[in-house]
Amino acid sequence: MSKKRENSVCYTAGRPPWYNSHGQMTNAFLIGICGGSASGKTTVAKKIIEELGVPWVVIISLDSFYKVLTPEQHEQAERAEYNFDHADAFDWALACKTLRKLKEGKNAKIPIYDFSTHSRLEKEKTVYGANVVIFEGIMTFADPELLKLFDIKVFVDTDSDIRLARRLRRDISERGRDITSVLKQYDKFVKPMFEKFIAPSMKDADIVVPWEGTNNVAIDLIVKHISNQLEKRGFNFRSELISNHVGEPLPANLHEVENTPQVRGLQAIIRDINADRDDFVFYSKRLMRILMEKTMSLLPFEPCEVDTPSERRYTGMRFGGDICGVSILRAGEALEEALVSVCKDVKIGKILIQTNKNTTEPELHYLRLPRNMSKYQVILMDATVATGAAALMAIRILLDHDVKEENITFVSLIMARPGVYTIASAFPKVRIVTASVDPDTNEKFHIIPGIGNFGNRFFGTEIE
User: Fold this and answer.
1) Which of 72-81, 207-216, 409-418 has the highest mean pLDDT?
2) Cystine design at 382: which of 138, 272, 328, 352 (Cβ 3.0–4.6 Å)?
3) Residue limits of the Phosphoribosyltransferase domain (predicted)?
4) Distances in Å between the alpha carbon of 461 and those of 338, 456, 458, 464?
């Protein structure tokens, strides 16, 4: 059996399921950080992320949005005579468009600027949304339209001598410039532009942070304010999922494999902690095949007639569309073989969602999907589901690629009840297919009784 792969690629720093348990969309929280060159804006941004302790936070620099230079401007830049510190040096329309998309939870392409060549690279970085977006730069508050997008505005105020010393060190070591050109540019452009554009923008800040390397009090105040805002928007995501729907009956869009003695026997083998890897893989594959057969029976078929060798016609059923599979890496890849065995030449996409060890939240790191996803019945595969956070994220991504909710079938070997409820309540039109619904999860969000780390056991690996 072959797997055709006609794919587009998207990389990201993390993608949230930008829909609450009622399927309602919420906006990202945008933080604008402004300050003079080398004032410590990036350091402050990282401190906020560190103390905030929430997933799906991205930092975007205004430096990415420098305008593409004309040949004449490029020559000026080579002579350190082009004013990179003027407000006109930035593509404000593109910056606003990008932040609006991120605020709406959509993916956005971030330009990559090469300071050593004073040019924008052909490749771009794709950010697929975030709970919190931090946008930092020397002119962050210079554009009125950009200002309107921020939920909080922070100005980092640092002594000019400290900023100059930092800029010298940075531009020489990181941007390949010599001390003469750096000082020339500072005297001619950086200092006067700071006085003309940046210092006056301090009045637009909600919080001014004096910064000479540390200011824990200011960081603490900022983090507390942001945390309060995020709590109002319901960003304690996994903890909320785990407590929802206690005592409710299983949803109507859940389809379980018939609990035959054979199925229970296969479950007993693969759940046994003492099962060797060969047995685990062999009997897991057998159960996956049964699971995938069940999945195929739920897809839309239509009557058809065929001629038989006896010259009689047979009235049967035919699948009336296209199917593709999407595996949630890495455990979901284990189900690909079962899908291919029942659906010839199916296209396969990949989504890498990993749990952040510090926050226990899912984060999207990689995405590759077949083109024209809207035309497919999509089989979304993961080996096990605990709270359903990763599955919810993956479904949201498919919807963002114009897949109809009713055309998504989520398939998993073992699911905990909280995960089933989470998916079904957020996306009631998605078919959920599993070989077992386990009763609960523990404090570490592991399925009880569960199967352990399926990926490690199936692929024979251990991840630290």
Assistant:
1) 409-418
2) 328
3) 258-461
4) 21, 5, 8, 10
* Domains of the chain by residue range: 29-233, 241-459
Considering just the CA atoms, what is the radius of gyration of the chain in Å? 27
Q: Are 347 and 5 in contact (CB under 8 A)?
A: yes
Q: And the tokens for 163?
A: 């900023």
Token match 């589901």: residue?
Answer: 385
- Identical fold for domains 29-233 and 241-459, yes or no, is yes
Fold assignment, 29-233: Rossmann fold (3.40.50)
Outline where 312-385 has alpha helix (H): 336-342
Residue 9: pLDDT above 70?
Answer: no
Beta carbons within 8 Å of 303's beta carbon, 6+ residues apart: 315, 316, 317, 318
What type of residue is 56? W
Q: What is the pLDDT of residue 3?
A: 37
Q: Where do runs of H (alpha helix) occur along 59-188?
A: 71-78, 92-103, 144-149, 160-174, 179-185
Distance CA 111, CA 275 (A): 50
Distance of CA 352 to the CA centre of its chain: 9
How does pLDDT run across 285-309, given as a tens digit for each residue? 999 999 999 999 998 888 999 999 9
Beta strands in 146-239 (DSSP E): 152-157, 207-210
Map residue 378 onto helix, strand or coil: strand
